[in-house]
Every structure is written in C-alpha cells, then in structure tokens.
Fold this sequence. Notes:
The protein is mostly beta strands and 218 residues long. Helix content is 6%, strand content 33%. It has 2 helices and 12 strands, in the order ββββββββαββββα. The two termini are 32 Å apart.
Amino acid sequence: MADYPNTASILDSATVEGPTGTAAKTRTSLSTQVIVYVNDEPVGAIQTFAANQSRGVKQITEVGTDGIIEIIPNSATKVGLTCNRIMFDGLSLTESMSRGFVNIQSQRIPFDIVVIDKFSGGGSEDSIVTTYHNCWFTSLKKSYTTTDYVVAEDCGMDAEYVTSYRGGKDTPVANGQGTGGGREVANRQIDNIEQAADVGLDGRRGSLDFPGLISAAY
C-alpha cells in the first residue's frame, strides 16, 4: 500500500513493498454495496436512486465596495429524491416502498427512506446509514413502449431533511474515516455544531439556528 505523492490517494498493488500478503483492493464505491429500505423492508429492482440537496445563498454587497463582502445562506436546504424502478415481483413502485396505494394522490402520511452503504463493512459500526425523513411523493410516471417491453416507473419525492451516521445514530460519518482501510484526512476541519446537524442530534435539521454563529470558526 502506498499514498500517491500528489493526492494522497491510496494505491494498492501486490508489487508495492509492504506486509506479506499485501494485494490490490477495490477502493471505488459501487452501487452493488447499497441497499434502500423503507419500513425495514428492502426495495428491490431499483435501477436508479438519486438524491439532490440544494440551498439558496445570497451574495452581500455594499455601497462603496466593488466586490462581494460575504456569502450567506438565505433559505433552508431542500432535499429532492428520484427513483427509477422496474415493475418486478408484481409490485408497483409505491407498493415496493411499503405503501398501501399505487397512486400518489392517495398519500396522506409521510415515510422515511433509509439507504445503507456497506462498502466499508456490513456491521453496524462500519456501514454508512443515511435517512431521508418524512418523504412525500411529488411525481409518478409509468411508461409502456414498443422499443423496450420492460415496464418501468419513475417517481420524484421531497424529504423534510436528511441525516447520516456511522457507528451509532449520534456518531458522525466523518469520525469513522479510515474504516476498513480507507483514507483518513488528518487535517479535516471539524465543527461540533456541523456534525450535530449532520446526524440530526436532538432533531436538529440544520446548523444555522445554533447560538453563537458570529463567533463560529474552525
């Protein structure tokens, strides 16, 4: 094992000097290591699952200055999800997500989606668990075509907020860097408030409502 001098990326090779038995490893995350759950039930036949987080920011300027003096967020983070799934096992997309309906007009109760990434290990201490909280369907599309007989559905969803942890619900993912032989960024900048928001400690959904923002610094 060796760190590439320019980037510190870990390079594995059986020819690199190291302990006896050192061999190349897979270090690139793969979708085969990810499982999507709803209500503790795995959602099968997913072709694409994508999450998009966005937040508006405002550029602050002032009279007398030719430039931007600060950039600040001016809205809450929005979390949008999309999913493409083949109709498989006789289940529609909504049914595969443990819902008791097939049309999104029927939804009246939100639900959580849990995504487990087992790339670093399958145990509770190694897996990265991301939860999209209080999801609502916003769109649903089903296509029947002659060019491809396989029937698939696409849906859009909005979540109220998202949390992630590794090694316990109150443990930030970044605290587990290096798990399974991965790279640990030694000089990473850590703020306790940012990490509390990342894991959703005490129901927090963001970091800007904690007191003392004016004095916050790494």
